[in-house]
């Protein structure tokens, strides 16, 4: 199998499959494919061998169905494009390691890879679209490709070293890194600092990959250009978010 990442701002991963080779991705990720590659969609992939396994994958942000792309009779190509401006990175997986990835980070993988929920916490109705903060766990033996938004900033944390990060900037980290979500200290900082109420706390040892673009920041940037937007909508949205958080809904 030959993997090629094409482009910079909106990259695409193109895989050249030899006869008999296959790759697994979440349904809806496909960009283009040659006619020699056959598709098979099922719930029993990426480590989900039963109903509960499928539920664990879905609770981690994955879809109900996964799709296998296989070059049965002759070689072929299949491609998966990034959904947002950013980067696609190659991630080798070994049985003795695992990686935590943001909920929409997994693009595709080959070999015996497993995708499941690792961490989930509800942070209030007004944060992250009411869905809370979710991490996926990548385990197994093989190779996966992960999509991170914006630029990628890697850090290697020493034992006991802690990095506090806006949750939307957490792209991926090794399982040896301890992870938690903490409240911003100080009432004035939390309510009027403009950085949200929560920060992710990453404590070493281990490697972390941060992403410079967040979905919330992108949505905020394009909101003034959407139909129905008014100049005072930002303040109203902030008031509604604060009200939701204080009411605990």
Keywords, separated by commas or semicolons:
alpha+beta; Double-stranded beta-helix; four-stranded antiparallel sheet
| Share in helix | 10-25%
Secondary-structure-derived class: alpha+beta
Report the biggest beta sheet as strand number plus sense, adding barrel if it closes. Answer: 10 strands, antiparallel
Distance between the termini: 49 Å
Strand content: over 45%
Q: Could you say which overall geometry the principal axes of the C-alpha atoms support?
A: globular
* CATH fold assignment: Double-stranded beta-helix
Uncertain ranges: 124-131, 186-195, 232-249
Number of helices: 4
CATH architectural group:
4-Layer Sandwich
H-E order: EEEEEHEEEEEEEEEEHEEHH
CATH class: Alpha Beta
| Number of DSSP-assigned strands | 17
- Mean pLDDT across the residues is 79
Number of separate domains: 1
Question: Care to give the gist of this entry?
Answer:
Helix content is 15%, strand content 46%. The chain has 249 residues and is an alpha+beta fold.
């Amino acid at each position: 199998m030959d993997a090629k990442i094409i482009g910079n701002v909106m990259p695409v991963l193109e895989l050249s499959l030899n006869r008999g080779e296959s790759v697994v991705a979440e349904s809806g990720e496909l960009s283009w494919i040659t006619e020699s590659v056959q598709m098979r969609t099922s719930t029993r992939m990426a480590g989900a061998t039963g109903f509960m396994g499928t539920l664990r994958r879905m609770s981690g942000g994955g879809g109900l169905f996964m799709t296998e792309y296989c070059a049965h009779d002759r070689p072929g190509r299949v491609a998966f494009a990034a959904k947002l401006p950013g980067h696609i990175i190659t991630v080798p997986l070994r049985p003795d390691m695992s990686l935590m990835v943001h909920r929409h980070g997994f693009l595709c993988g080959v070999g015996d890879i497993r995708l499941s929920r690792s961490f989930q916490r509800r942070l209030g109705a007004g944060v992250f679209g009411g869905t809370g903060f979710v991490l996926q766990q990548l385990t197994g033996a093989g190779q996966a490709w992960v999509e991170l938004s914006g630029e990628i900033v890697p850090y290697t944390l020493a034992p006991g070293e802690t990095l506090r990060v806006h949750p939307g900037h957490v792209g991926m980290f090794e399982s040896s890194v301890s992870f938690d979500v903490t409240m911003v200290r100080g009432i004035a900082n939390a309510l009027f600092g403009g950085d949200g109420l929560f920060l992710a706390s990453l404590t070493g040892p281990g490697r972390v990959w941060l992403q410079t673009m967040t979905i919330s920041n992108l949505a905020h940037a394009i909101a003034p250009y959407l139909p129905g937007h008014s100049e005072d909508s930002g303040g109203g949205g902030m008031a509604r978010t604060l009200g939701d958080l204080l009411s605990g809904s």
